[in-house]
Structures
1.
Amino acid sequence: MKVLLSVKTTYSALSAHWSRSFLTILGIIIGISALMLISSLGKGAQNLILSQIQTLGSKTIAVVPGREPKGPTDHAVVESFYGNSLKERELASLQKKSNVPKVSDVMPLVFGIETASRDKETFRPMVIGASHLISKIFNLVPQTGTFFTDDDVAGRSSAAIIGIKVKEELFGESDALGEKIKINDRNYRIVGVLPKKGQVLFFNFDEAVIVPYTTAQTYIFGIKYFHRIIVQTETEDDVPFAVRDIEATLRSLHGITDPEDDDFFVGTQAEISETFTTVTDILTVFLAAVSAISLVVGGIGIMNIMLVSVTERTSEVGLRKALGATEKNILFQFLLESFTLTTAGGIAGIIMGTVFSFASATIITSLTDLDWKFAFPMTAALVGIIISGAIGLLFGIYPAWKASRKNPIEALGYE
């Protein structure tokens, strides 16, 4: 009965000053909304990246130059794009079945952003140098035309396959097949046009130009090494054995006896997924912690307004004590009001954050080619409710204690 009375009193007290109550919990609403938005975007980004990684297939292995990064801030992440430890002899060694019996396909990759032009039209695509195996490994089937062949690779031919975005930017509605584009003052003949493919890991194939890797090395990038060597096995079960053989082959070739001295690293789909998950989780937690600062500010606001409320209702406290209310009853009453305020703010923040998150996912999808899906962060919602309620109790305890300690005689005489 006393609890029901406290609930009714809480409703009356808060609804009597609804505008003040709203302004009081605004910091809580903003903080929880930010927590929800950041968590949702982080989860959405993580899901997008993992889905792109999974398109490579669980049988795909990436051999990367440079040492293995130990974390997201390790300079090795940057060095891996400029290392030159993977060259023709490394490629030849990995193509020998006796060295890596579990490997079925080996493909070198070089890539970089370059300017492509046709007449007065220009575009800056990602130029990818690869062998014909790129069509198999990345599941690329030209919409029109075909892929270049091993003979094109051996002869450093000027054959090129372009993404649909490149075609639209340089050729518009006209047919691009058989036409030419210019990259670094050299003409390339279009032998194939890809359908809309979108982003696959680091490559947006809609905005890509694919040429033989020998051509890219010689005429576009001017390098004699590879940025990556992509390897595939026949089955998923073969992956651990292939990784072991790749590492042993390259260490033998480079005269490395201590794995700590490796000038390359081998990444599987599972390892790449785990790395990205860890990085996105760390960033999400960090950004969410920053957004929690507004919750502390909101908590201080709660304490301030509850102290004002205690002062304004001194006579009420005195009357309730005179009628038999105990200190525990008064303490519970004001704690309930504080808890109700912040919990209501938390619920409002979750609703607002969900709306903002859904709107953000919709905007990202409409403005980009990314298949960004809305992700409701259930954990963040539960944490938000718990934190908002805890803030109400933490910052409401002092005002509630102060109210419960008032002398009823002095309180009744308060003007």
Note: The CA atoms of residues 186 and 219 lie 8 Å apart.
2.
Amino acid sequence: MHWKFKQFEELTNQELYGILRLRSEVFVVEQDCVYLDADGYDDKCFHLWAEHNNEFVTCTRIIPPGVYYDEASIGRVIVAKSMRGGVLGKELMRRSEEALYSLGYTGPIKIMAQSYLLNWYESQGYVGEGEDFLEDGIPHRIMIKVP
């Protein structure tokens, strides 16, 4: 497993393509959700991903404070279907949080979690806020993790 962490401007064409392809495979095709993934935030964010056997297998978008929420955020959290069921998701979140803190951020992390994953995020230290709401037709809930 080879991990990488880069600002948007540092991504090569191949890296950007790999990230966007993985996001489309999971969020658009697998979840049958037609939405515009290129939402205007990627160029303001950092991107963390891992490659295994030259395939993109997991990624997140790390959003600095003030870009989407007042707090920093981790979004577009993906583990490829072929890699689920182990500890890769937990490692992805741990590495994403560490990446945020390596940038000097010390505050809470706010995420928009798909509701079916609430228990999983709770096991990572996140606490739900408010009620579920629909985002692109999929139930979500805001969650916060305080360091």
Note: Residues 26 and 32 are 9 Å apart (CA to CA).
3.
Amino acid sequence: MVRRVCESLVDDMQFLQAAFKTCNRNPLGSAAGYGSSFPLNRTMTTELLGFDSMNYNVVYAQMGRGKTERNVAFALATIAGTVSKLAYDACLFNSQNFGFVRLPDECTTGSSIMPHKKNPDVFELVRAKCNKLQSLPQQIMMIANNLPSGYFRDLQIIKEVFLPAFQELKDCLQMTAFIVGEMKVNEHILDDDKYQLIFSVEEVNRLVREGIPFRDAYKKVGLDIEADLFSHDKQVRHTHEAVSAICVIRKSRD
């Protein structure tokens, strides 16, 4: 689960880098929207201020209002989507009917009437906040959607939903990192007999490797299960590439 999230976050970083690339352009000199006759060296200000490039057309520099925030919001929403799914999975896997993981006690709260219960409140709040963040691009688009070129006071409303999003996502990421670091995995969950049948495919694979046609192996294992005769070695032998370091994933993306 965690490795899946790591690889997803690597892809999310590419969205963030793309947003930065499109935003890191110098709009200075566009004035109120249509440029100025003042002899401003825009190339110099671009270099001195560390922009990658500039908005060459001054009208487009103003039209970027709303579009710039929307591009960044999409990147933030992509990250939030990854974190939200992790929070959902963790809450589910922590529940009584699964018990795959145990969340740290300091990140759970008790029930109002059931002394034994530990509610995953922190991850539930992380999930809700991240789901809210995923609506941010749509909010920005609806504010800036039907405006003509230039600046209008409508665009001010974007700030009140856009600027707080950075701290909200940062808080969610920090809390998620803490919980995952303290989360305990139930290493003996497969000792429960109800999980025995998850190894049925492994048994089919074993028979195929011994030369039995897949359809025959599939049928044999199915009949063994129906007759309550199924048993299998619980040692799984993966043959696909297993990524153990996030740097390997990132290098392959680059």
Note: Strands lie at 25-26, 53-54, 101-102, 109-110, 118-119, 184-185.
